[in-house]
Design a protein that fits this description.
globular; 406 residues; alpha/beta; 15 helices; seven-stranded mixed β-sheet; binds pyridoxal-5'-phosphate; 2 domains; Aspartate Aminotransferase, domain 1
Length: 406
């Protein structure tokens, strides 16, 4: 694939009002019109480049949207106040009462809870299936199915979606494929592999500073415009609008995304390979033992590696908790949810980010109690990190101390 998202991102140029190297921030919720006729036309959606009211759009949000469209290779993109704001807008736009969704069963806990517990209020049903098995999806598609939903690399089990195969299936039935690409910006470009709509939680890698919550929907112009429609757009009417100041700050952080992704990936690969060699059960798409390794290699941009997320199963929740507390005490990272920070973040998904998923379902999908999810940070000396982590594991009896006592 010759598409270079990193180049497209760097070619974008915006100047500030006084020739500043950063675009000016639109510090207004509402905009004046020179004529009443233009205001009417703007309401009708007939005047490009005219701003009306900032829940609809604002210059700062449009700049960030353009950068996200360049990242994903889509026509355009809308930004939202959170990843969940983006996800729920897409779902509510595509589905009506009586409709049906086919979703991967290993998805972000919030998305899972929304589909399973919330959408039923609107009589929208979801079938949760193993989306790595195309037959399993085809089996549950009905004439009411309005979307196939998955994550390119799933949370927290790091399953890799075969986006080309999923897109082919979606095309066959004439339904959109919606992919949450939060875990793999730059590494995977779902739209170029055939996905119709790509969603991001900007809160994670794209912003990368753990200082805000935001989201994005990347797709075709007609779809993104429909989300903004003043009469029927879920984005416009549900109102999860991103603030202009925050959009400007995310755009600035995005400029280092390519450097950060390379470092997150290199550090995660180093830890994954070394801990696997120590005999630990490590899940990382960059390991040959990962079931999705071949698919990942077929669809990734190798420049950016296999991503910053890995999991390790240390046996029990007690051991997992002890290890995370010890790692935090040794300044290796923080016991915290979320991902994409410069510090390593670790949590036990079964009791945190995936606690929305009932225990028996967690077991079915292979989400065990002793599983720790790591969002590997930007450590400059990853070997030192590895040695300190290894010593901690030896102290806790997770790894045997192989050194012979004197
Ligand atoms: C965090 C996350 C979300 C939700 O995003 P928010 O910005 O927290 O609303 C959705 N999908 C994935 C994969 C995530 O990691």
């Amino acid at each position: 694939m010759d598409y270079k998202a990193s180049n497209h991102l760097q070619d974008l140029q915006y100047f500030g009002e006084y020739g500043g190297v950063n675009p000016s921030i639109s510090d207004s919720s509402t905009y004046t019109f020179l004529s009443a006729k233009t205001m009417f036309d703007t309401f009708e959606g007939n005047t490009e480049g005219c701003y009306l009211y900032s829940r609809h759009s604002s210059p700062s949000n449009l700049y960030l949207g353009e950068a996200l469209a360049a990242l994903e290779g889509t026509e355009t993109a809308n930004v939202y106040a959170s990843g969940m704001g983006a996800i729920t807008s897409v779902i509510m736009q595509l589905c009506s009462a009586g409709d049906h969704i086919v979703s991967s069963r290993t998805i972000y806990g919030g998305t899972y809870a929304f589909m399973k517990n919330f959408l039923v209020k609107f009589n929208i049903a979801t079938s949760f299936v193993d989306t790595t098995k195309i037959e399993a999806i085809e089996k549950v598609i009905t004439h009411n199915t309005k979307m196939i939903y998955c994550e390119s690399i799933s949370n927290p089990l790091l399953e890799v979606a075969d986006i080309r195969a999923l897109a082919k299936l979606a095309k066959k039935y004439g339904i959109p494929l919606v992919v949450d690409n939060t875990f793999s910006p730059l590494t995977i470009a779902p739209a170029l592999l055939g996905a119709d709509i790509v969603i991001h939680s900007l809160t994670k890698f794209i912003n990368g500073s753990s200082d805000c919550v935001a989201g994005a929907v990347c797709g075709s112009k007609p779809f993104c415009l429909s989300l903004k429609d003043v009469n029927s757009g879920s984005g416009m009417l549900l109102g999860s609008t991103l603030d202009s100041l925050r959009a400007a700050s995310i755009l600035k952080n995005m400029r280092t995304l390519h450097i950060r992704m390379k470092m997150h990936s290199a550090n995660a690969l180093y830890l994954a390979q070394n801990f696997e060699n120590q005999g630990l059960r490590v899940v990382y798409p960059g390991l040959e033992t990962h079931p999705g390794h071949a698919v990942m290699k077929r669809q990734m941009n190798p420049e950016f590696g296999f991503g910053g997320l890995m999991t390790m199963d240390v046996g029990t929740l007690k051991k997992a908790n002890a290890l995370m507390e010890m790692m935090q005490a040794k300044k290796l990272g923080y016991l915290a949810v979320s991902l994409g920070f410069y510090k390593t973040l670790f949590s036990a998904p079964s009791t945190s980010t995936s606690s929305e998923i009932p225990l028996d379902e967690q077991q079915q999908m292979g989400l065990s109690n002793g599983l720790i999810r790591f969002s590997v940070g930007l450590d400059n000396d990853i070997h030192r990190t590895y040695e300190t982590m290894k010593t901690s594991m030896e102290q806790l009896g997770i790894l045997k101390n192989k050194k012979v006592a004197p």
